[in-house]
Structure formats: C-alpha cells, structure tokens
Design brief:
The complex is a heterotrimer of chains A (97), B (375) and C (493). Chain B is α/β, with parallel strands linked by helices. In chain B, 29% of the residues lie in helices and 26% in strands. Chain C folds into three domains: 189 residues, FAD/NAD(P)-binding domain; 140 residues, FAD/NAD(P)-binding domain; 68 residues, Arc Repressor Mutant, subunit A, CATH 1.10.10.1100. Helices cover 35% and strands 23% of the residues of chain C. Classes of the chains: A mainly beta (97), B alpha/beta (375), C alpha/beta (493).
Chain lengths: 97, 375, 493
C-alpha cells in the first residue's frame, strides 16, 4: 500500500516481520513497515474479527495496533523501527500463557 | 396534573427493577431518571451476582441474595425477551480470593460463622487451598493463601442489565422520564403524594424512593432519615485477551468480550467519583498480586463510582413512617438483588405491605443500642 | 519522587516555546512527549529530516519553519523525556509518566503545561473504517516520519487548509493525487469574501494558500467543489468513493482515500482533570476554558497551542510563551511589568491574526453531514463498531448524553476512549433533541489517558498513601458490613 517517495535517506536496517527478514530504514514507524508488507491486511479486530488498518497515524485512533518485541497491542505509529526489531500483526485478541 | 399509580424516584438498577415489577402487576408506573452526569452507582459496578460470604449476623440477607441469584437466569431471559437486550448473565460459580495468610484465616472464620448461623438450612460454600484456586483460575499468585468457592455465584454485565431494564419498562407499560429533578414531595390531601418535578406537578398513590445517594434528601422531604453515605470504588479494565477464566471471583473476572476487570477500592471520599493515582496503583497491585500474569496486560480504562452504603452495608426496605404508601428502597448490591427487587419486593409494594422476612431491613435497626454499628 | 518547576506535556510548537521561555526565566523544566523527537505533528521529525535533503524538498519550506525552534529546544537544558507517555495528571500539578526503559513514575511540579495539540475531526461516513481510508494528516505524517506515500490513485475528500496542503505535498512527493472532493462551495467563498478582505493583514498566508490551490488546479485531474461524500466501499486497492455534487451522484476509484474535515483540540487530559470547557459554535468543537495567558480553571494547569483552541503553529508558539510568562510572574521570577512588556508584542500579533483565523473558520466550518452522519449503517464508534442506528436507538430509549449512550451501547468504551466518536455521539444527541451541542454533556474521561501495563502501574512509587486510599497491606479493602471479626479485608459486592 505504500512506497518510498525518494531515495531512502536513512540507514538501512533489517527487521523481522512474522519470522521473515524485511528491509526497513531507521526512523520508519512500525505502522509504515506493516502497511508496506501487508497493506490492507494490517490487523484483525478483537471486537468482531474484521480487518482494520491505520487511520490517523498519530496515536489517536488506535487502529495501528501491532505486536512489537513480544508486547501486543502497541500503537505502531508511535514506535520507530530499529535493527532486529521483532514485529507481528495484531490478529484478534492476545493469548496470555 | 399528571397522575400515576406509582412514581419511582430513581431509574438505576434498583429503581428500574422495582418499577418494572410494579408495572407487571398492572400499576401505572412512572420512573424518574436524573441527568446524564448524575452519579449513577449503577454504571460503576463490577458485575457480580454474588451470594456466598454475605450476611454475617443478618441471615435474611444471605437468604435474600441466594433467592435473587436462583431466579436470575429466568429474570434475565424475561428481560431479554422484552427488551431485546441480553445482559450476559452466567452462573459460573465464584471464587473468593484472599491475599495473604491473615486474610485467609479471617475468611475461614467468616465462612465457619456463616455456616453456624445457617444451621439446619445448610450453607453451600467450601474452603479452597491455593492449589484448588489455581485449578479453577490458572495463574494465581504465590501470596494467594486460599479462599472459598460456591456454585451459587455468578456474573452479569451491569450496564446491559440496566439497558435491558430500561428497554423492558415501556413493554410493561411503565414510563420513564429522563433529566428530572425532584424539588418537593408532599402528602396529598386525599391520600397519595404530590411531587414537584422539574417545574411540573405530578401525583401518585404510591411512591418509591430508590434514588441511591439521592434517597437521603428525598426521604427527608417526608421527614425520614435514610442513613446512606457514599463509598467510592475504583475498578480497572484491561485490554481484551482470549478466554481464560470460566469462573468469576471477588477481585478479578473476565467479561465475555475478553477484558479483565480488577477491583475494587473502598474509600470514604465524599462525592468524589474520580479515578486517582492511588486507586490506579492499589487496584493494579491487587490484580497483579492475585494473578501475576496481569502485569503483562495493559489497563485501558477505569471506573470510579460511589456505592450507596448504609451503616452496616445491608439494605433498607421500609415504608416511610407516618406516610403509608411511600417506600424507601436502598441497597448497595443492586445488581445481585435485581431479580428479587423486580419480583418479590415489587409484589410486596404493590400489595402495600412489606413482608415479614424483610422486616430485618428497616432503618430502625440503626437506632437500637444492642446492634453495634460496625465499621 | 521527582520534582520540577514546570512539567510540559507535549513537545510541539507550544510545548517547545514554553520550554524555551521557562529556561530563559531560570525555571527547571521537564518535558514529556510520546515521540522520539520534538516537533509535535506539524514539525514531526523536523530535526532528523534536516539531514534528508530530498525529503526536505518534498515537505516544503513552511515545514522547516520549525527547525530552529526544535534545535533551540534540544539545546535549552530542559530535562527532555522522549518516548514517554503521561497517563495521569492530578489537580495538584503532579503527573504519572511511563516510559519503556523506566516503567511508571510520578513527577511533581509547581505547574503543568498541557500542550497536547489537535487531531483531525472524525469523518464518519459509511466505509470510513475500511483499510486504505486514512486522514490527510496521516499521509503527511507518513511522509515526515517514514518518507513514504500511498501507492496508486489517491482521492482526498473534505475541506480545510490541511486538505490542500496535504495534496500539494503528496504531489510534490510524486504521489498520484487523482481527485480532490472538497465540501467547500462557490457560495462559501462568496459568503466569506468580506471576512477574507478584513484579513488583509495576513495577506502573505492568504497568498500562500491560494498558490497551493492554484498549483493543484493544473496538476490534479479532478477537483470537485460542493462534494458531499456518501459512502466508501470496496477493498484496497479498489476502493470507491461515492459522493454527490450539484444534485448528481458520482464516484471516484481509489487505492487510498484521505479524509479531512478540520482539526479539533485534544481534550482528553483537560477533561480528565475536570477543567471547565467551552463550546466553539463556528468550529463545532469543545475546548478548555483558559484566560488570555492560558491558565485553566485550575491555576496549576496551563494549556497552550491547538489543545486550547485551533490557531496554528505560530500562535501555539505565542501561547506557550505567554503561559510561561504568567507562571514566571506568579513564581516571582519576573515582575508583572516585565511580564506585560514581554507579552505585549505576542498579544498584538495574536490580535492581527485573529481576522485570518475568523476567515478560515468561517470558510471551512464543518458541514452538518460530517458532524452527524446520514447513513444508519455508519460505524460512529470505530473501536466498538457501534452504528448510527444503534446510537439513535439508545437516544430514543432515553440516553441524554454520550455517557449514557456509552452505558447502553458501548460507544466510547473502546481503545481510543471516545477520541474518535464522543463528539459525534454528542452531536447525534443534540440533533435528536433539537438543541445545540453546547447543551449536551461531554464524555467523561478517566485515567489512564493511554493504556499502560499493570506491572508498571503496580510498581509505581506513589509516595505516602493519601487518606482515602487504603494500602496494599490491607488488601485494599475494608468491610463496613458485619464481618467485623475477620482480620484483614473483605470485598463488598
């Protein structure tokens, strides 16, 4: 759903998205990475199971929820990626063991 | 002047339940509800339909709670059919958690004394070890010493219960008036009562005062002292997780939607229904002590609400002295008692007389000196 | 427990300016923001983007107005806490903060300046919750923070300066801006002509705005005025925006739809403090009541920037400065005369810009169909998925405001805690009752302002337990009921 609009001007890094290495850049947000990789299939709602994706990208709408480094339901638009970050989509309700 | 057979002041879970019951007996019933920002104890409730552990020294209360719980499923189904709203009642059985040996020892004593007071009637509750609790509610913390269990306990969505009651009222011919302020109550010359409500005069034969903390000033208009005071409870709600708990408990429960509720404080802070830092912190500590896995969950919202407490915490069901036909109904367990409020109590009020087994709940018990006011 | 003179919540233009002013007057300042860099939304990532010339070219010169401010901010000697969230503020000027590396902690301050900024008004049309539908501001943020644009056809819809600004920036970034569906009509321009003329002092800003719009006329294939969006349907990359204009029904295909209907102040923090708020009839939003200095109905709480009322970045800088001037005088760091002397040019500039503000507000006032949706199936509450028809039913059952609507149908109970829906719900109540939203209560806000881990809250050091708050040793509770013989505490239910 997204593409870079200029030559990347930040350091290139690699993050892990649902087990797969994905190239990204420093200061990109988790939300941007997930939008690039999954587009419209960003998240599954914990309310009725429908698909949702980011709306405001500034921390107000809570649609950008994602799992970051094992912590579920983080607002992806507020988390800048860094080397080796482990990212997964928030697919419905979290399981807690 | 508009006239009803009964006017019920207060449309929370108590007022609405009593009004519903009265209307099913064919009484033309008008329920008066306050403004959007009224304190509304009904909206701040944890949602337990709880029986065991209650009523020490007040056996009628233990019976009353059990009776309500026994009828609840039927009552909830009736409301659902009438209103279309399902209040998600589940009689899951309940765990009474205690934190620490001291609390556990005290609780063991409580259950033993309740069993003794029940005598031949029997008492359905059993003590649980920590391991027992862990089997029922996995992940219980190391300082949980033990607790007790009863299959009589359950849970409901308290907001849906109120929604269902409000939705059911018109289907039984009761009218609910919102955004009302009662300025005056007077006895009418031919019998009955006249009220001045938001600038309008209303008349009725019978009157029920069920306005929570507001019952005090309303009853005072008829010369009766209703000794209720506010007690603040703060509750935290976590993000939704996959289903984990199939039973309910006194401190922690999981809603059908998946959120975990943790509560509650009990604070004497007047009419301040805010959630504050101390409440956030203490309830978080309560929850994470009971279930350490909760540390990893986020609290996403909170409630603060004011319980309506009498000096001993038990209800007041009383006809107003010198004003036959006027009744005061107040309790802090409006959720648990909703079924009997709508049925047994409303039936009695419709008949104009409170029954003997509710005689223990008059406010005269606070006047006699052989009953200690316990803190 | 940490202590400071001034706690600044939010490092946007107002927060940054307040910080500089505070440092000039020798105050200790602690500044908290959820992001990693200062700048707020309008100047998001401005410092790191200064090192990115290509991205800078796309973003344009207005954006870099914020660079000097942000640079001065980081060099100011303030205690700067990025990636930190204030989740609770108390009326005494103390606040609870959480950060990933330190958990939750309390800060006490003589005063708290809340500078939370604004966010885009909800645009509840059927289909607004579909993936691929975002705000115009979201696209700008994507550009600023991540250097990316939506792929494929972009359709923008709504009204307001930000709509045009975003379209201009996206074009400059090479995105495919296929259509702009503006709710503003020719009649609106005529109606506001007089206001435009009286804003002659701000001719520079007016010309800039006109330039963007003119530039876009030639570069955007389809610009429609008087466009009323009726619904959005489909699935990325084939979304379809249905709208009406001039009595005709039309549609536009899009891979991404960007909505914008103006900004509203973020009042979560100010509402949680139960401060007084007032209703702005023109812009149809609530804002906290503050005096000319930014002092709220609680003297320990100051509010500045768009969070006090939408007035843009330049005015936010003035507001932050003025609030701290007032504080400095109150704390005796500056005399009343000195305070007034420093404030005079700021107040004068504010008065001069007032006319421009009035013009923009009149021109871009949100139309009724944005404030209250017209399609029954519209999800008004995104988080809990509550539709317009469910909310109307709640109102007909007797819910007299958003709090009771929430109690009945859960609107406002979800993750965003009413940010996206509470004012729409109130507008629906107002419409059903035939009254101004001024007369409809707002949704109550309680902490935490943002979700916070229970483990962090439980581990907080909150100092001495205040009266009214029982300690953990008693398991938090005591029983007023007859279980007096039991040691330890018992829950009431």
């Amino acid at each position: 759903m997204l593409r870079y609009c200029t030559e990347p001007e930040s350091a290139a890094i690699t993050v892990v998205v649902e087990g797969q290495p994905v190239p990204a850049h420093v200061d990109e947000s988790v939300a941007a990475v997930l939008l690039r990789v999954f587009g419209a299939d960003y998240r599954i709602s914990s309310v009725d199971g429908g698909t949702r994706a980011p709306y405001c990208l500034m921390g107000v709408c809570f649609e950008c929820l994602a799992e970051v480094d094992g912590v579920p339901n983080r607002q992806g638009c507020l988390v800048p990626v860094r080397e080796g970050m482990v990212i997964a989509r928030q697919l419905g309700r979290t399981e807690v063991d | 002047m508009k006239h009803a057979d009964v006017i019920v002041c207060g449309a929370g879970v108590i007022g609405a339940a009593v009004a519903y019951g009265l209307a099913t007996h064919g009484r033309k019933t008008l329920v008066l509800d306050g403004p959007d920002t009224a304190k509304r104890a009904s909206r701040g409730n944890f949602g337990l339909v709880w029986v065991h552990g209650k009523g020490l020294g007040m056996r009628p209360y233990a019976r009353w709670s059990l009776a309500s719980a026994d009828q609840y499923a039927d009552f909830a189904a009736e409301l659902r059919e009438r209103s279309g709203v399902d209040c998600s009642f589940r009689r899951t059985g309940g765990v009474w958690l205690t934190l620490g040996e001291r609390e556990f020892a005290g609780h063991k004593q409580l259950i033993a004394r309740l069993r003794a007071e029940a005598g031949a009637e029997g008492y359905r509750a059993e003590m649980l070890s920590r391991d027992d609790i862990d089997r029922l509610m996995p992940g219980v913390g190391p300082t949980v010493a033990g607790g007790s269990w009863s299959e009589d306990d359950g849970e409901v969505n308290p907001l849906s219960l109120l929604h269902a009651l409000h939705g059911a009222l018109p289907t039984v011919g009761a009218m609910r008036c919102v955004d009302c302020t009662v300025n005056a109550i007077e006895p009418a010359s031919g019998g009955g009562f006249e009220l001045s409500v938001s600038g309008e005069r209303l008349g009725c034969e019978q009157l029920v005062i069920a306005a929570g903390l507001g019952s005090k000033p309303l009853a005072a208009m008829l010369g009766m002292n209703v000794p209720v005071r506010p007690d603040r409870g703060q509750i935290l709600v976590t993000e939704r997780i996959a289903p984990r708990f199939s039973v309910t408990s006194n401190y922690v429960r999981q809603t059908p939607e998946g959120s975990i509720l943790i509560g509650a404080t009990s604070e004497n802070v007047g009419e301040d229904d805010r959630v504050d830092r101390t409440g956030l912190c203490n309830v978080a500590r309560l929850g994470t002590t009971a279930f350490p896995f909760l540390k990893r969950l986020r609290v996403v919202r909170s409630w603060g609400a004011l319980r309506v407490l009498t000096p001993d915490g038990y209800p007041i069901y009383e006809e107003v002295p010198d004003h036959p036909g006027a009744f005061v109904v107040t309790a802090h367990s409006g959720i648990t008692l909703a079924a009997v409020h709508a049925r047994r109590l409303a039936t009695a009020i419709a008949a104009g007389q409170l029954p003997d087994d509710l005689a223990a709940f008059t406010s005269t018990r606070f006047h006699s000196d052989h009953v200690a006011i316990l803190h | 427990m940490e202590e400071t003179d001034l706690l600044v919540v939010g490092a946007g233009p107002a927060g940054m300016a307040a910080t500089l002013s505070a440092r000039r007057h020798g105050l200790r300042v602690l500044v908290v923001d959820e992001n990693t860099e200062p700048g707020g939304q309008i100047y998001r990532s401005v410092l790191s983007n200064s090192q990115r010339p290509q991205r800078a070219r796309v973003l344009g010169p207005t954006y870099f107005d914020g660079r000097a401010l942000a640079q001065a901010f980081v060099e100011s000697g303030a205690d700067w806490r990025p990636q930190s969230t204030v989740f609770e503020i108390a009326y005494d000027g103390s606040a609870s903060i959480v950060a990933p590396d330190r958990g939750a902690y309390v800060v006490r301050a003589q005063a708290v300046l809340i500078a939370p900024g604004a966010y885009e008004r909800a645009f509840p049309v059927r289909g607004w919750t579909l993936p691929g539908v975002m705000t115009a501001g979201a696209a700008q943020t994507l550009l600023k923070t991540s250097g990316q644009v939506p792929q494929g056809r972009i359709v923008l819809a709504g009204g307001g300066p930000l709509l045009w600004y975003a379209a201009w920036q996206l074009r400059a970034a090479g995105a495919d801006v296929a259509a702009i569906l503006s709710f503003t009509s020719a009649a609106d321009y005529v109606r506001c002509a007089a206001a435009a003329l009286s804003a002659w002092r701000s001719i520079g800003d007016l010309v800039t705005g006109a330039k963007w719009m003119a530039a876009l006329q030639f570069r955007v294939p389809r610009i429609v005025h008087s466009a009323r969006v009726t619904c959005i349907e489909g699935r990325v990359p084939s979304l379809r925006v249905h709208y009406e204009t001039g009595g005709r029904s039309c549609m536009e295909d899009a891979a991404t739809v960007l909505l914008h209907a103006g900004l509203i102040p973020n009042i979560q923090a100010s509402k949680s403090l139960r401060l007084e708020h007032e209703w702005d009839e023109t812009q149809q939003y609530w804002r906290p009541s503050v005096d000319a200095w930014g002092v709220s109905s609680n003297p320990a709480i100051l509010i500045a920037g768009d969070g006090a009322g939408i007035a843009g970045a330049k005015d936010a800088v003035r507001g932050g400065t003025l609030a701290v001037l007032a504080l400095a005088a109150r704390l005796g760091r500056v005399s009343a005369e000195q305070r007034d002397a420093e404030a005079a040019p700021l107040l004068a500039a504010r008065r001069r810009e007032h006319k421009l503000r009035a013009f923009l507000e009149a021109l871009y006032a949100p139309p009724s169909w944005v404030r209250v949706p017209e399609d029954d199936a519209t999800q008004v509450c995104r988080c809990e998925e509550v539709t317009l028809s469910q909310i109307r039913a709640a109102v007909h059952l007797g819910a007299a405001g958003p709090n009771q609507v929430k109690d009945y149908v859960r609107a406002g109970m979800g993750a965003c805690q009413g940010r996206m829906c509470a004012q729409t719900v109130a507008a629906i109540v107002a419409q059903e009752h035939g009254v101004s939203p001024r007369l409809v209560p707002t949704q109550q806000v309680r902490p935490p302002l943002k979700p916070v881990h229970l483990g962090d809250v439980a581990a907080m050091d909150i100092g001495e337990i205040q009266s009214g708050g029982p300690s953990i040793a008693e398991a938090l509770l005591h029983a007023p009921a007859a279980e007096a013989d039991t040691q330890g505490a018992v829950k009431l239910h």
